[in-house]
Amino acid sequence: MKYRITMAALLLVAASANAQMLSSHAASLPAANASAPASTSMQVTGKPVARVNDAVLTDRDLLREMLALFPYARLHNGFPKGQEAEIRRGAMQMIIFEELVYQEALRRKMTIPPTRLAREEKKFKAQFSSRDEFNTYLNTEMNGSEAKLRKQITRSLLIEAMLKNEVENKSVVSLGEARAYYEKNLGQFEHGETFAFQTISILPPATANADTLKESRKKAEEIAKQAKATKNYEEFGLLAEKISEDDFRVNMGDHHAVKRADLPVEVVKAMLAMKAGQVSDLVQLGNAFTVIRLNAHNAPGKAKFADVKAGLTEQLQKEKSERLRVSLDKRLHQNAKVQEL
After folding, report:
1. pLDDT tens column, 243-272
2. Position 81 pLDDT exceeds 90
3. In terms of C-beta density within 10 A (0-12 exposed, 13-18 middle, 19 or more buried), how is residue 87 classed?
4. Closest by Cα among 269, 296, 297 to 284
5. pLDDT category of residue 70 using cuts at 50, 70 and 90
6. How far apart are CA 234 and CA 224, in angstroms?
7. Can you list the alpha helix ranges (DSSP code H) found in the chain?
8. Confidence bin at 82 (pLDDT 50/70/90)
9. What is the DSSP track for 95-139?
10. Which of 12-21, 58-67, 200-209 is least confident?
11. In the structure, what pLDDT confidence band is assigned to residue 167 with cuts at 50, 70 and 90?
12. Is the dihedral of CA 102, 104, 106, 108 positive or negative?
C-alpha cells in the first residue's frame, strides 16, 4: 500500500465511516473547492469539538473529515440522517488519530526537507485557476496566512511519513509468508463445482394465461435463434442487454461463477451437455424461458498457489496493515489526554 499526497485534498482519508479503526489514512488540508454545502447541519463556526493534549480540533476539522468520508454530501446538501451520527463518529476518530500521529512525529523530531515542502506547496497552489481564487481560499481557510498553509502542508507530510514508517513499511508480506498461509489453510482454497454463464430470458407475467404463454414461447424461440447466431461473449452480451428481461441484462447477461447447488436442475442439465462457448436450446423454467451461453464449467478442486498468490498477498498485507494501525492508535492513546467536547 502507498500513502500518496493528493494535493487536491492533501491526503484525504479513505476509511469507512463505521470503522472502529482507521483505513488508509490522510491528513486534512482543505481542497481548493472545499467550501461546505449550504445545509445548516454542515455549517462551521470554528467551535472546539475535541482536545488532544494541548491541541484543539474544531468543527471545521470535523466537517472536512466527514466530507472526506462521505463526499456525496456536497451533492445532496447534507448527510443522510440515518448515517450522519455514524459518519460523525468515524470522522472524530480520524481527526483525533491524525493529531496523535502528528504530535508523535514532532516528538520524534521528524522533519520534511525544504525542497520537498516547496514542491508540494507549488503543487497545491497549481490547483487554483488564478491568484484571486487562491487568495479567496487563503483568506477563508488560512486566515490569509501563507505561513499557516505551509504549516498545514508540513503537518500532512509528517503524518504521511509517520504512517509510512509505522504501517506501510512494516506491513509488507513476502511471497514466502503468503505461501506459508496458503499451505496452512488449504481448505480456504478449495471450491465446489461451478458454472460461469450468460442468459437471455423472457419472463411472462405470473398471471399469464395460455395465449400469453404461447406468445411468450414463440418470442423466446425467435430470440434463441438470434442467440445461437452470436459468435462470442460480447455479441451474446450485447443481445442480452438489448432484449433480455432478467436482471442480469445490465451486465451483458453474465452470472459469473455460480455453484451447481444454487442452480435449477434444468439449467444444470443443459450446461452439462455443452462445451464452453456454446449456446443452449430454449430452456423452460416454470413460465419463464431462457437461453444460456456457457463460458466455463469448473470441476471441484483446489486453487493453485500460483493462481491466488497475488490476491492472497494483497489480502494478507491489508490485514497486517490494519492490525498495525490499530496497534499504533492504542499506543498513541496510552499516554495522551484526549477529550471530546
Report:
1. 999 999 999 999 998 999 999 999 999 999
2. no
3. buried
4. 269
5. confident
6. 16
7. 59-69, 73-76, 81-107, 114-125, 131-141, 146-163, 175-184, 210-229, 233-243, 265-272, 305-334
8. confident
9. HHHHHHHHHHHHHTT----HHHHHHHHHHHHTTSSSHHHHHHHHH
10. 12-21
11. very high
12. negative
Residues 6+ apart with CB under 8 A from 85: none
Cβ atoms < 10 Å from Cβ of 295: 19
Would residue 330 be called left, alpha or beta, if left means φ above 0 and alpha means ψ between -120 and 50 degrees? alpha
Q: How far apart are CA 106 and CA 157, in angstroms?
A: 12
Q: Classify the C-alpha dihedral 161-313-93-17 as positive or negative.
A: positive
The C-alpha cell at 293 is 451461453
Is the sign of the CA dihedral 35, 37, 38, 44 positive or negative? Answer: negative
Taking phi over 0 as left and psi of -120 to 50 as alpha, with beta for the rest, 30 belongs to beta
Long-range Cβ contact pairs of 133-140 (< 8 A, separation 24 or more): 133/32, 134/32, 137/30, 137/32, 140/35
Other Cβ atoms closer than 10 A to 230? 19
Which three three-digit cell numbers place residue 21? Answer: 479503526
The mean pLDDT of the chain is 86
Instruction: State the pLDDT at residue 30.
Output: 56
Query: How far apart (Å, rounded) are the C-alpha atoms in residues 186 and 226?
Result: 44
Query: CB neighbours of 146 closer than 8 A, spacing ≥ 6?
Result: 138
Q: For 291-335, write each residue's pLDDT tens digit.
A: 999 999 988 988 899 989 999 999 999 999 999 999 999 999 999
